[in-house]
Amino acid sequence: MSKKAIKMSAQHKTYPFWLSIPALSVYTIFVIVPIGMSLVLSFTDWNIRRWDDPKFAGLQAFKEVIKDPDFGRAVFNTFLFAVLTTILKIGLGLILALVLYKSFKANSIFRTIFYLPCVLSMTVIGVLFTSILAKNGLLNNILNLLGLTTWQREWLGQYTTSMAWVIIIESWMWAGFNMFIFISGLQAIPRDYYEAASTEGASSWKQFTKITLPLLVPAITVNATMNIAGGMKVFDIIYILMKGGQSTDTQVLSTYAFKSFSVGYLGESSAASIILTVLVILVSFLLNYFFRKREVEV
Amino acid sequence: MNKKEEKGIKKIMKKLLAIACITALTGTMVIGCGKAAETKSESKKEEKISVMLVQSQNIDGLQEMFAKLEEEEGIKIDAQVIPDDQYVKMVQMKKASGELPDVVQNNVPHIFNILEPEKDLYDFSDEEWVSQLVQPDVSQFNGKQYAFPLKANQGCQNVIYNKDFFDKNKLEIPKTPEEFTQLCEDIKKLDVTPILMASDTWVPQMWMTAGFARAMGSDEASKEMTENIFNKKKTFADYPQLANVIDELLALRDKGYLNDDIASLTWDDAWVELSDQSGAMLFGEGLTIGQNQSMFPDTHFGVFNLPVDYDAQDLLCLSKYTSGFVVRKDCEHIDAVKKMFDCFAEPEYLNLYFASAPGFPAFKDVDGGAVQKDVYELYNSHLEDDKLVSEMNVVWGEVESLFSDHLWPYYLEALTKDDIDGQQVMDRFEKDIDKFMEQNQKEE
Question: Cα A68 vs. chain centroid, distance in angstroms?
């Protein structure tokens, strides 16, 4: 090989690296560096009143966070929210995808309608549902019209109903997004499989469980990983609908870290953020591993 | 032209295009920076003061004052309006990172708990306008004038009621706790909520803040109790009257005198319900009637002091703070700020502030607008009888950072759950205070 050819080949190999530099720089500055700094600061007693003077405190901040009963509650709520929203988003997304992936009239209109909630601003959603779920809101008025007055509740005022509604709203918002990933998965499944199964006399249910579902596992892996990670990092919907999780009942890890930060306990806030980061990474990896093992080649 | 030459020209063209792109981008940046520098140097000619404003504190009135200042004195105000719930955090962050604006608006003296007056703030004690202050102690720290107040004080914390509803149903203003209970019972029978309590955490806290001060009986007693708690000489269990304030409110809730949607009703909605007679009373600052009256022009509101078992003296709780400005000690535009304050101390400026939101002005000769007669009479009668006490939040100012994220949510939780009593709330808060003090001791 000539010298020029070797040089060209080397340039071709390094070409993607140079192109990824801008993205890597942004990612490093805005993600890697803050996480690294949080990690370092979580081992200090950093306080907003001692901004310039954080001192090494070992695991003290982690101990303070873990012994706080509100933290346990926040961890429970975070997992509850993440798991239930993941199941609902995947379930609803799959149903919508199965209905809408075949072409029919107004198909694209329906797809747009179901996708729309996830592009709406969280503030808009918050205002909308606060009005719907208020004591004199739309939902209670409808129940009143139907004569179901005993069903009327202060929906956002009690732990169970408020958590339930937050989970429902989040799932409603993102089911459309999951639907699109499932539609791509469904479109990748060759029609021959179904034709062969039909010839063999397999029922629609059998075709769904034996062909569709196994071949959709890669799409489920993507959705499940993104949903669980997103669910564990939840902040905005809790902050807006439940006023920042102002009651300790409805706090999640992100709002807990935010509250520590607000009081000025920056070391503890960093420790809570690190715990959240580790949990998100761990759960995402485990889930990914679980589904990857079940993936089938088309 | 052969293929090789063509390739060479293409290569050169590509390089030239790349150079042109880089030059254009760099040029744009340089020009952009140049423009910024130019603007900066231009702005040096006109005085520009950066100000942080609290969203809820009569921005309209202030904007009118700023416009007049720019027109008459050529001093431009670069205002940044911050939502109330983020304000303290924002000031703390800006202070810590050395990015405080020239002027910070907030409740005074509460701001002295976030910014250290002697270390961070400019001392205006020698300014002429200080002698014109009606109630100088509210905005001073250790006898020095570290703030420019807009109001003398924020008024009193009392019951606000719907006069039309009371007149229509021939209801009388209660003078004793028994009469108050009877009044609530009568209102409840009319299928109207006697007392409206909102979910915004700063709303229920007013009941406790006023109640604690009244239960302690005097400002001196409140200060002594605070010192004992903060220095760990005593605990809240040694002051059962504080837990009793919460328990008495919880007893009213248990009797069904409070709305059943405390966890979701907003302060604004509470005013709507007070106006449309779904509710009869709410607890708050009397001067807020002036701000809300424009939204409910046909409703007549009145005030009375809440009769309670834990205060036999009938003390009235004074919101001993004011909306005002503090200035960074190393402010580069201090002459312009001084000029601004000289102007704002004049009636022709400060009258604009009170035109749409009547209150008690900080300066003599300023027209505070038409303060509601009942509010004025209630305040004056207690002032004359020397029956005013300062709200507990001012006395507990050292731990102010804990209020909005800890203490106030605890109050709300006690009201919205059945299994929390007053002592539990106070014990929980005491743990927060201990931790906070421990952190501060590290600093020392």
Answer: 26
Phi, psi of B156 (to 5 degrees): -120, 160
Q: What was the pLDDT predicted at B192?
A: 97
CB contact A259 to B (< 8 Å):
yes
Name the DSSP class of B121. Answer: B
- Tally of domains in chain A: 1
Taking the Cβ of residue B414 and every Cβ of chain A, the question of whether any pair is shorter than 8 Å is answered with: no
Domains, in order of start, for chain B:
46-154+321-364 (3.40.190.10), 156-318+375-443 (3.40.190.10)
pLDDT digits (tens, 9 = 90+) for B375-415: 889 988 998 899 999 999 889 988 888 888 889 989 988 99
Determine the structural domain holding residue A235 and report its residue range: 68-292
Query: Considering just the CA atoms, what is the radius of gyration of chain A in Å?
Result: 24
From the candidates B87, B90, B439, B441, which should be mutated to test the interface with A, based on the most A CB atoms within 10 A?
A: B439
| A51 is a domain residue | no
Q: Does residue A106 fall inside a structural domain?
A: yes
Query: Which bin fits B369, alpha (ψ -120 to 50), beta or left (φ > 0)?
Result: left
Residue B317 has pLDDT above 60, yes or no: yes
pTM passes above 0.90: no
| ipTM (interface predicted TM) | 0.73
CATH code where residue A271 lies = 1.10.3720.10
Contacts of B253 in chain A (CB under 8 A): none
Rounded percentage of chain B residues whose pLDDT exceeds 90 = 57
